[in-house]
Amino acid sequence: MTKLSKRESNKLQRRAAILSAAQALISEWGFKGTTMQEVAERAGLSKGTVYLYFKSKEELYLSVCVMGIAGFGERLEAAGRSASGLEDRIKAVYLAYIRYSLEEPAVFRVLRDTFLEQVRQNLSRSTIEETSGIIKGWLENESRLLQEGIDSGVFAADLDPYAFSVTAWRMATGLVELALLEDPIVVDPDNMQRMFEGSIDLLIKGSRSVR
Fold first, then answer.
1. What's residue 34's pLDDT?
2. Which of 104, 111, 114, 116 is in the most buried spot, having the most CB atoms within 10 Å?
3. 86-103 and 57-82 helices cross at what angle (nearest 10)?
4. CATH number listed for the domain at residues 1-54
5. The model's pTM
6. Are the C-beta atoms of 166 and 139 separated by less than 8 Å?
């Protein structure tokens, strides 16, 4: 392994500090409410230095999204490998998405905001396409699990695998938002885990083949 020079190491540290600061600020104030000056101050750097690493706020936002997406993707893949039965694998991936979202709420909010129209208006087309494409990849992976179930007769022949995946993803996202609410509380926190598991069980049950 090639050893990094001190200069290269410092560059990586500064880039990491900028991303960390941006992730925290965007989570607190949203995309519109965050400025490059504030990111620089949070990272302990000058605004000019931030622009050496990221040409625009949109580019910085994209990097934060991709950083978060990578973490999500790794957890989802690991969850899918850890379970054995087909339905258990589907459920494991679903619950892994929820668990990671609750563990890393800042990342979750950044990813969620990528699909808000008021945020998209401030993002370049390439930013939207890149983040959307990665998430679409997750959904297609999940769809393949559903297709296995259709082919083996576990799930109904007329089930749309991709529609199932999209529905499960948006349902999980909505439940995470409820769980992260501080006030007013819509669902008793003690019941949230049961609701997480019950929601995917409901989807799976409704998708099974009638025999």
1. 92
2. 114
3. 140
4. 1.10.10.60
5. 0.78
6. yes
Residues 87-105: tens digit of each pLDDT: 999 999 999 999 999 988 8
Using alpha carbons, list the distances in angstroms from residue 82 to 59, 77, 78, 79, 85.
Answer: 35, 9, 6, 5, 10
User: Which segments of the chain have a pLDDT < 70?
Assistant: 1-2, 184, 211
CATH of 58-207, one of 2.130.10.120, 1.10.357.10, 3.40.50.10790, 3.20.20.70: 1.10.357.10
Per-residue pLDDT tens over the stretch 114-126: 788 877 777 777 7
pLDDT computed for residue 211 by the predictor: 60
Give whole-number Cα distances, 103 to 72, 114, 139, 146, 202, in Å: 11, 19, 21, 27, 24
pLDDT at res. 187: 78
